[in-house]
Fold this sequence. Notes:
By secondary structure, this protein is α+β, with helices and mostly antiparallel strands. About 25% of the residues lie in helices and about 25% in strands. The protein folds into four domains: about 1-45 and about 495-539; about 45-225, Lysozyme-like; about 245-375, no CATH class; about 385-475, no CATH class. It has helices spanning about 1-45, 85-90, 110-120, 155-160, 175-195, 230-235, 495-539; strands at about 75-80, 100-105, 130, 135-140, 160-165, 200-205, 255-260, 265-275, 285-295, 295-300, 330-335, 340-345, 350, 360-365, 375, 380-385, 390-395, 415-420, 425-430, 435-440, 445, 450-455, 460-465, 470-475. Bound molecules: zinc ion. Zinc ion (ZN) binds next to loops.
Amino acid sequence: MKVFRIRNSLSAKRNIFAKAFALFATVIVIIAVAVIPSFADSNADDHESGNKDLNQFLITTPDSDPDLECPSNLNCQFIAGQSSHSNTDRTRASSGPQFKYIVIHDTEEKLARTLDLIQSPDYGASWNYTADVSGVYQHFNLNDDLCYHAGNFYFNMHAIGIENIGFVGGGGWYTDKIYKQTADLVRYLAKKYNIPLDKGHIIGHENIPGIDKSYTQNVHKDPGPFWDWNKFFEYLGEPFANGKHPSHDFSAKQFALINPTFSKNLNTITNASFYEYSNPDIFVQNYNYAAAPTSFTYVYSQPNLNSPLANDPAYTSPDRPINTDAESVPGRAYSGDIVYIKEVKGDWLKIQWAGNNSDGDGWIYNPKDKPVAVHIATKSAALKPGLKSASTYGRAYPDDAAYSGTGVNPQPRSPLEYELKPGIEYPIADMNVVSDYYSSTDKKEIVGNNKYYAIYLGHHFVFINADDVIVKDNPLPKPAPNPGPNPNPEPYPDFGINVGFLTLLDSLLVLAVIIIVWQRHRIKVVRLKQRIKKRITTT
Ligand SMILES: [Zn+2]
């Protein structure tokens, strides 16, 4: 009996030791998972953005009544903007246009110069936030000032503009910290102003159409091919297509969300100009990337990688060709864009792109080993039966009758070059477009009786009259396509907190199961040994 008691107590001590070891191992795993990425981040973002003496800009000018709108975890400061547009249009009426969009831009300048411009009364643009790895700088009170950053007054009326320090032609500026910081800011603003966290509302400057035919050639290009929209939406907590990965298997009349795997989506980009991230004193011009990780897939004119890029007759001209140049936007479908598939030919998807009828077709390369298209459920708009065409618009301005008696001059509803054609389903980006115009002089908001939808068309959104179309719901194809394992996964855990946290939970679960099994096995062995020992002593 004495031997038995000693062995029991030894076993209990071993159990305590094992439990302590398990607890210790768990703590080590948690610390490792939590600390290693943040250490990596701090290394990745240990960069000055070319800003040698930021303190000279940290002066709040006296006309401001800073109302800092920023999540508390970010390093935010108010640097009052003075650029001219804001001075002529300082007050957003309380009954003025609501925020509907958040526009992601890049500055094409380093931080010091950017802060200089926003404080210059002679500068003809204004925006709400500038951000880089040093933090976020708010320039205007959101509800008092209407900023001019979108190149389209309808979007200026409705959009908050965030300028990240970066370059359309230069990779490296968008670090993990920038994605997280911008996502935190966007999530905060979207919640506050009730803006949906989808690609119909959180948009790039490159998605904004010209105001009319004469402006289509001047559409902007930022944030450009190096902004990883997929990663950004992961950090927003709203991954594209609920995180579903691309598939090769498509058929005609389906819809595809473009979402290539950024790090493996290598594209040629030519004639890029940018400040080097690693050495911001160096300005690089006409740089050619043979194969750079990017967030878009080229849209070709034929199912052939050597064919010219798809045409956008509204954009192109002899001195503005559509090609692989960093700033040539129209030949690219970006992550988050939704397209209508007209035909499938082997590895190629024929899609409705920019332009009308056959000059609006484009081809996307979607091979089995590296697909870029994801099955997506979406609403679509098609011309009403009997209509041969319908106009598209760059601004969702009210019908003329809405101005009656207001003293505000009706704004032209000039159509764009693109027309809706029969037999095509246009994916809808936003069903709840507000038809309105805000007169900053009269401080009057005119709301239209007419209704618009926003659709994806080519590389940007355009507005269409709801009266011209019928809307269809397009669920995922049945049976649900099974793309199998992701043939092209990210080689690094860049899917943000959600997936990272799941991985951590998974690891802890596996560790716990191993410890439990090991413990039970040990107890069994000890008990067996005790029984044998007991039998030996009794016999
Ligand atoms: Zn911009």
